[in-house]
Amino acid sequence: MALSVSDAEKARIAFQRFGLGAKKSTFKRVAADPMAALVRELNKPKVALYNGRALPSYKKAASQSQKSFDNAENFRRKELEARVKKHLRADIGFVERLVLFWSNHFNMSIRKSNAVRGTIGHLERTVIRKHVLGNFSNMLLGVMQHPAMISFLDNDDSVGPNSKYGRDRGAGFNENLGREAMELHTIGSGGGYTEEDVTALALILTGWSYVRNWEADNGYNNGRNRNRGRFIYRKTWHEPGAITLMGKSYPATGRKQGIAALRDLARNPATAEHIAFKLVRHFITDEPTPEMVEPLKQAYIKSGGNLKTVSLALLQLPEAFSAPLTKLRTPYELAIAQFRALNKIYKKDDYWWAFAGPLSALNNMPWECASPEGYPDETLYWLDPDGMTLRLDTAKVSGSVYGNRYRSGALSLARSLYDSALTPETKQRISEAGSKSSQFTVLFCSPEFQRR
Amino acid sequence: MKIRDAACCADERVVRAAAAEDCEESRLALSRRAVLGVSAGLFSWACTPGWARASAEATNDPRFLVVVLRGGMDGLSTVVPHGDKAYRSLRGDLAIPRNKTIKLDNFFGLHPSLKNFGKLYKKGDASVVHATCVPLRNRSHFDTQDNLENGHPGATTGYATGWLNRLLSALPSGSPIVTHGGIQIGEAPLILRGPAPVLGWSPERYSHLENPLLYMVRTLYKANDTQMYNFLEAGLKADKLAEGKGSKDKNISDLRKGFRGAARLLRASNGPRIAALSVDGWDTHTDQGVIGGQFANLLTELDQGIEDFRKATGPTWKKTVMVLVTEFGRTARTNGDDGTDHGVGTVALLAGGAVKGGKVVSDWPGLAPSQLYDGSDLKATTDLRSVFKGVLADHLGVPGSILDTSVFPESGGVKQLNGLISASSGDGLQIAESSGRPVSLTSMAPIARYRRGEPVSGAGPRVL
After folding, report:
1. What residues have CB less than 8 Å from A242, skipping those under 6 apart?
2. Share of chain A above pLDDT 70, in %
3. Which residues sit opposite A248 in a β-bridge?
4. pLDDT score recorded for residue A317
5. In this complex, do B20 and A362 lie within 8 Å of one another by their Cβ atoms?
6. Minimal Cα–Cα distance from A21 to chain B, Å?
7. Under 8 Å between Cβ of A220 and A248
8. If pLDDT is split at 50, 70 and 90, which confidence band does A163 have?
9. How far is CA A315 from CA A94, A311, A327, B163, B328, in A?
10. Fewer Cβ atoms within 10 Å of its own Cβ: the N or the C terminal residue of chain A?
11. CA pair distance B101, B77, nearest whole angstrom
12. d(Cα B54, Cα B71) in Å, to the nearest integer?
């Protein structure tokens, strides 16, 4: 029996606002009680984790990536493919969306270096996924002590000017990681820190580096074959003495100084507000109001930064199921939604043609956003004239590549994915579209499918 | 499915080949998408129905195109300093004989692949600035491309806005440059990122949806989603204008489509006045070639693009300046692979009817070993910002007060290069010193706007 329109809309909200798109196999189960299904996903043990024999260990990812571009690129491809397959297995994909959200929060680009290219997948799989429903400070510490982030934000050569190495060589510090850690990862712009605080955090993080290939090859700076490519704390590079950050003095405890400082930043109420704001903006609306942000902020503060508690608070906002779906799926989300709808992903030979190519054309290839800010959560960034025509062009590619591989037609698929939320107009245009691939193109172009 | 080989896989090869050099060359990957909303006028769906006619009349406003040559173009092979005794021995097998180049003056010769540019030079519509570079000289593609585009003195990161966008934000709102805005062709480069809304258009990469399917999708959007409908209509109009009539662009490269599209858009009377596009592939570490080969092919393609652009601007050419710049030059010596590595000093090329052409502007630093920068590269005696400032001041009438602060922060000590533009170009456009609008040098993060109680999202599209 068909669902009522409002029940079908609720299912669509669960799958599109919070998830990665409807699947035939789970639609009925989710539609029966969308809110309960979302909570069920959050409660599933180890829901975010996966592993595979093809996926490299930390040691392997770090060391091999240093040795050649091809190694690094090989790891990237394998990690990305495993990620896409994981997206397909999720019932709704709320936790997967949270993983993508946090990955974008700590955005890095593989174009920066082989270190990022070859270990970014490892970072996402073992740090982001491990803590996506855990504690934010642990996620932050894991990211900051990973070669990918050290490399991306130029901390590998950051030396305290008064450290032994700094005095001997006249070397200095790089403030990039310290700045972005405050501006993007924790407190956020306008949250009450100063330029002096940026410098202080940068000094606190001096000596946080990773072992570059030439160091491992030549035994420089404590580089060895066994720690090639891995995070390293270089004591003789670290700025000596106590350092004051946001009014608090951190004694000279070496690496622990940085850990203590980052933990405090994670606990700061401004960080709670920043994260609450970003979650609401990502999932619900371009214009979050204090009424939407406060409940998440309080959940964060009361739970000491527990991200599962915060994610539940997001679901419990009155707007979670009442605000209209005015945002637009990113091209990546769109590709995944197609795969989930059809229960198929690109074939190996189609990787460039049907997946990476369209995503590059639409500037949304995973792990390739150059700015540390990550992809914007602004609808008009994605919804613009050039973007719209490209969306249509790539929907045509998808229609012909994937649609033709699907057994039944687009109309019956659309009915089983949207039930009564499928509008008469979309139904009519799909059925008029003629060829099978054209029908899928219309389905993929439809506002039902594009919005979230 | 022809495109399969032609587009996607070609990109992959480019990226892989570049990245195999073990620097951040994969930054040079092509990506083609717009950023932010729409500029005024051209793409507003509410404007006059006839605007999309390709023959839209030109107006007298100046037009400005910035071409970013990504990868680090070899200035010494582009404009060859025959007059420097050290050139031949430094370049060895890669040295280009004087009798093979196009003579620019008694000192410099132009690479023979730049035939059309050479003709423009002789006609007085093109010029060269030699031994120039961005202020940051650390030889990293990633950092120096950012530096070229963010317009700051030398810091590498942390600046989210580009100088061309800040120009649009800083000029007084009545200025025709602001009214008609800017457009990026192809990718969304940092240079045009920022608070001012910009339009984007990309050359067709996958084949477009055709009728009746296209009609069905439009009808569906019209019925169910006005916002998507409006943006799609605007995008279709942009395609129609930029892609020209019929199928004459069918069998040319994306690069040439980009130049033609830029020209057609700039030419339209209510089209943008400023555009930016990127050309990739200049990172010639191996087998660079001399008269023929890799580098020569790149120049030939670029030269064709410049000529395409000139033709397609039509009567607007005389009001146009295009500046072609790169993030750094190559090492003065060749490397062991018949190529050149990341260097410093290089050339900037200027072309357009408004250019005061026919000259190579250079305070030549010399190529003797003691004269090289760090003992390896052509020294940069002209800050690239001086070139930009000279063009913006004389062509677009931008006052120094705006150039020294909003567009190129802390650049009061970097003097504009005079004499690049013909006298009549900026006529009637001189903008008063005191009329600039305040511009934030970093983009205002959404969280910061939220904390101040302001609307979080950008202004979005403006409609006539």
Report:
1. A249, A250, A251, A252
2. 100
3. A245
4. 98
5. no
6. 19
7. no
8. very high
9. 10, 7, 17, 41, 50
10. N
11. 10
12. 34
Looking at residue B425, its pLDDT comes to 64
Substitution target in A326, A346, A351, A380 with the highest count of B β-carbons within 10 Å is A380
| Non-local CB neighbours of A350 within 8 Å, separated by 6+ positions | A401
- Looking at residue A20, its amino acid is L
Is residue B2 predicted with pLDDT exceeding 50? no
- Interface confidence, given as ipTM, is 0.95
Question: Which is higher by pLDDT, B204 or A116?
Answer: A116
Contact B188 A363 (CB under 8 A): yes
Sole residue written with tokens 């050479």: B118
The reported pTM is: 0.83
**Which residue ranges form the domains of chain B, and what is each CATH number?**
31-451 (3.40.720)
What's the pLDDT at A290? 98
Q: Per the CB < 8 Å rule, is B37 touching A384?
A: yes
Query: Which residue of A180, A289, A389, A404 to mutate against B (max B Cβ within 10 Å)?
Result: A389
d(CA A392, CA B139): 40
Q: What is the pLDDT of residue B155?
A: 62
- Closest partner CB to B4 (pick from A353, A381, A387): A353
Per residue in A305-330, pLDDT (tens digit) is 999 999 999 999 999 999 999 999 99
Q: How far apart are CA A184 and CA A372, in angstroms?
A: 8
Whether A191 and B447 lie within 8 Å, measured CB to CB:
yes
* Sequence spans of domains, chain A: 153-266, 331-450
Contact indicator for B451, A194 with CB cutoff of 8 Å: no
Contact A390 B32 (CB under 8 A): yes
Distance of alpha carbon B307 from alpha carbon B309, whole angstroms: 5
Residue A72: per-residue pLDDT: 98
